[in-house]
Amino acid sequence: MNQKKAVISLGHKALGYTTLEQRDAVQKTAKVLADIAESGFQLTITHSNGPQVSMIHKAMTELRRVYIDYTPAPMCVCSAMSQGYVGYDIQNALRSELLGRSLSTPVSTILTQVTVDPYDEAFYAPTKKIGRYMSKEDADTEVGKGNYVTEEPGKGFLRVVAAPKPIDIVEIESIRTLADAGQIVIACGGGGIPVIEQNRHLQGASAVIEKDTIAGKLAADLSADVLIILTSVPEVYKNFGKENQEAIRQMNASEAKDYIRAGEFEATSMLPKIEAALEFLEKKPDGQVIITSMEEAMDALKGKAGTKITA
Fold first, then answer.
1. Whether 311 contacts 279, CB under 8 Å
2. Residues 47, 189: contact at Cβ < 8 Å?
3. Is 134 left (phi over 0), alpha (psi -120 to 50) or beta?
4. Contact between residue 62 and residue 134 where contact means Cβ atoms under 8 Å apart
5. What is the rounded CA–CA span in Å between residue 9 and residue 226?
6. pLDDT 10s per residue in the chain (311 long)?
7. Residue 258's CB: how many other CB atoms inside 10 A?
8. Distance between CA 264 and CA 244 in Å, rounded?
9. How far apart are alpha carbons 295 and 307 in whole angstroms?
């Protein structure tokens, strides 16, 4: 295939926060993805799932409260559910958009597992909030099960889970085969289903994986030409949110590390994206990373917008 390979990471804005929002949002997202594909790229798409996996976790927990015969769904199962239904919406919207342009490129979703280290330090200090707000009584019940909770004053208690670093993408060969054939692949949704390898078995882990982190690894594993991270802002900024905020239109890996040391990037938003860029560029020095918004994606690919990061 002569196409360049692009791994695209979709943020919350590309999907919305509810089933109805998602249905509408993916129609717009599909147009942008089709534009990129039509410009000559083979696409492998990954996506966030924070709102979706939380919604599923809430629903399954409440189901257990109402019908005691049901068992609570573990996080790995909630993650698998979210991958399935988000992928379903994206692939159908994108397929329809492509056919409307007389393009018959196949689009498919691969339920993707990602191995993690059971001794990862993240398991000892969980930070990712999920699910519904709970009463003190319900929170104590969760703690009794060995789960972690955190309190938000005035709102209640939330369960928190670990966000370990990914080790291997289990289905990478299947993803690579489809990508090499020029097909569009949706994979590693929500960071992938976290699993722990035990001899020949894969055991689901009570965790989530940062979706930007897995995007960097996925791009590296596929030796992609470009990693495109679509987020809520058109560019990366220094002094973000301050009066002297300034867009960073281009930087290399060394400059990015300097910005990280200077504390320029918010730990829960932009920092994981920059770290993903660095991981990808370390493995693929001739690649490039583009961080921008959905609206500016095509202009960013032409060098007219967004932030470009190179080795």
1. no
2. yes
3. beta
4. no
5. 11
6. 578 999 999 998 899 888 899 999 999 999 999 999 999 999 999 999 988 988 888 888 888 888 888 887 888 999 999 999 999 999 999 999 999 999 999 999 999 999 999 999 999 989 888 777 888 988 888 888 888 899 999 899 988 989 999 999 999 999 999 999 999 999 999 999 999 999 899 999 989 999 999 999 999 999 999 999 999 999 999 999 899 999 999 999 999 999 999 999 998 899 999 999 999 999 999 999 999 999 999 999 999 999 999 99
7. 12
8. 13
9. 14
* pTM flag (> 0.85): yes
Separation of alpha carbons 91 and 45, rounded Å: 10
β-strands 128-134, 156-161: how paired?
A: antiparallel
Tokens of 203: 């055991």
Encoding tokens for residue 284? 């693929």
